[in-house]
Design goal:
single chain, alpha/beta, 11 helices, 39% helix, binds aspartic acid
Length: 305
Amino acid sequence: MQELSRSDIQCILDLSEQFIELNRQDNKKLRDLQGRTQINLFFENSTRTRTSFELAGKRLGADTINMSVEASSTKKGETLIDTAMTLNAMHPDVLVVRHPDSGAVALLSQKVDCAVVNGGDGQHEHPTQALLDALTIRRRLNRLEGLTVAIAGDVMHSRVARSNIYLLNTMGARVRVIAPPTLLPSGIERLGVEAFTDMRRGLRDVDVVMMLRLQRERMQGSFLPSVREYYHFYGLDHEKLSHAKPDALIMHPGPMNRGVEIDTEVADDIHRSVIREQVEMGVAVRMAVLRLLVAGGGNGNGGDA
Ligand code: ASP
């Protein structure tokens, strides 16, 4: 996301809009990627991202294969490059890769001949998550520019936060991050955000509240006194939400820990929570990304433009 320009982002979001309509029809099948091979290579667990990339590829007509690989910490580097070389020899057209190490996907992309999509690398980036978030916001609030978006929770370990910060800044939104001091990376302001440790102050008058999961699998050592205390100060409940704009959107990338970072009623608020819509937008955005990378930017009828 860090490398994408405003017009790149706009182009992906505009193309995604077409796929939202398609995905709501009975017949969802296109032929844009017919004859192309997509391999989803996941070194880390995933529910939404893997499933939606698989659906996205299949709906575009690609042959889609899933590979889940246990990443043993001692063999990590070797496994990654070896696997990349092996897959490369099978002439895939696109690899979608998730890996627990920051930078691993970029490294892998240098070793293969095909397109590579980052499905999440460590705590670095998760670009398609930021794109689907942007699409969800744009459809609900009709714009991104000028909005104030609060990203709250475990900012330190969150690739979702980083990708969203890059995208929202590029698109002219104002970004706030809210976290306990232990989960707020020092110098985060350099990314162009305003940082808060007081959730009520951070939420004041925002248009969008994006909650983040506590990434316990990435925490070495103790970052929090207790989950109960965390919920008390940083869990999104109706009272804290009342500090945001009255119609502020509630977002969460999933998986959600109800009662940890978000109150269950807030998560299910049918007027303000767009969490399920985010999942729907995920398929459309991933179709757009695959189409643009593998078949180019044509009109969707042949995919060879
Ligand atoms: N699903 C998102 C990710 O893979 C967010 C999360 O796991 O908390 O980064």
